[in-house]
Specification:
- There is one protein chain.
- By secondary structure, this protein is an alpha/beta fold.
- It is 49% helix and 11% strand.
- It contains 13 helices and six strands.
- It has a six-stranded mixed β-sheet with strand order 3-2-1-4-5-6, with helices on both faces.
- The radius of gyration is 21 Å and the shape is elongated.
- 28% of the residues are buried.
- The mean pLDDT is 84.
């Protein structure tokens, strides 16, 4: 006999209990309900027990199979609550980050949101100069910093691999002392074994993915996903053929990057120069070309 689910324990448990109720009312097994989707039985079971959230495309699949409209509506409610402070187009990735086994990212323009300090996040968000209330900006900064809690969960920490261009270490987004703190933050995560970082040297010449930044996410019970973002839009790619091409490009980029130890040394050296008062004018004269 299946163990009963306490739907009063929280939103995930309530959601899971409703899923089991409707599935059993329809006379379907887990295997039958998930059939025709990209997802596995393990994920559906975890959702029923309140341990996982439901991806939007799976919610649509379940509603079709069960003849309901509850799960898409509920999924949208949960997404809306979670994405406060984030752009609407980022909702799918925000959910995917929590479920990913591995996250691989190439960020040529800015330090990725998952690694930003409060000062860096505030500078990047403030650069748009939107006419908004201070509390709205604060909400965006807080939402960005909250994503980094992924690295503080001792039970489920995704393997996060990020590649950055060397020039990004020397882009003076903040005053020197704050840039040092930003780079120290990245170095500390590396030394704690929470992330892997590689640097593409300035002198590396042409390399893959020069035209865009990407994030590749892998899951235990769902197909991989690629995410690309522009200034005011984001695009997810889940076509298997395209995902395979982007993964190949990322692997070639990783091969062109400095090894992990050398990359950490570059980050720490840049932080030390900032602590010693390095200024943009000095950085312009660095022998990087």
């Amino acid at each position: 006999m299946a163990k009963d689910i306490d739907g009063s324990a929280g939103v995930p448990q309530f959601y899971g209990k409703e899923l089991r109720y409707h599935r059993e009312e329809a006379g379907l097994t887990l295997e039958q309900l998930v059939e025709g989707s990209y997802y596995g039985i393990a994920l559906l079971s975890a959702i029923e027990h309140g341990g996982r959230s439901m991806p939007p495309d799976l919610a649509a699949h379940v509603d079709r199979k069960l003849g309901t409209d509850f799960f898409v509506r509920r999924c949208k409610d949960v997404q809306e609550a979670r994405r406060r402070g984030h752009a609407e187009y980022f909702a799918r990735v925000l959910e995917a980050e929590r479920q990913a086994l591995t996250i691989e990212q190439w960020s040529p323009g800015i330090i990725p949101g998952l690694l930003q300090t409060e000062a860096y996040a505030r500078a990047v968000i403030g650069s748009e100069r939107f006419q908004e209330l201070p509390e709205e900006t604060d909400a965006k900064v807080s939402a960005r910093l909250a994503r980094a809690q992924l690295f503080e969960d001792d039970h489920k920490v995704p393997e996060y691999w990020v590649i950055l261009p060397e020039a990004l270490l020397w882009a003076p987004v903040l005053p020197p002392e704050q840039m040092a703190e930003q780079l120290d933050h990245i170095a500390a995560l590396i030394r704690r074994g929470r992330i892997f970082v590689q640097i593409i040297p300035w002198k590396s010449g042409a390399h893959p993915l020069m035209q865009c930044g990407i994030m590749v996410l892998d899951f235990a019970d769902a197909p991989p996903l690629v995410y690309m973002e522009g200034q005011h839009h984001g695009q997810t790619v889940d076509d298997p053929g395209l995902v395979k091409q982007y993964r190949r490009s990322y692997d070639l980029l990783r091969a062109a990057a400095e090894p992990l130890g050398a990359s950490l040394a570059m980050i720490e050296a840049a932080a030390e120069e900032y602590r010693n008062g390095a200024q943009p004018a000095r950085l312009d004269r660095r022998d990087l070309a």
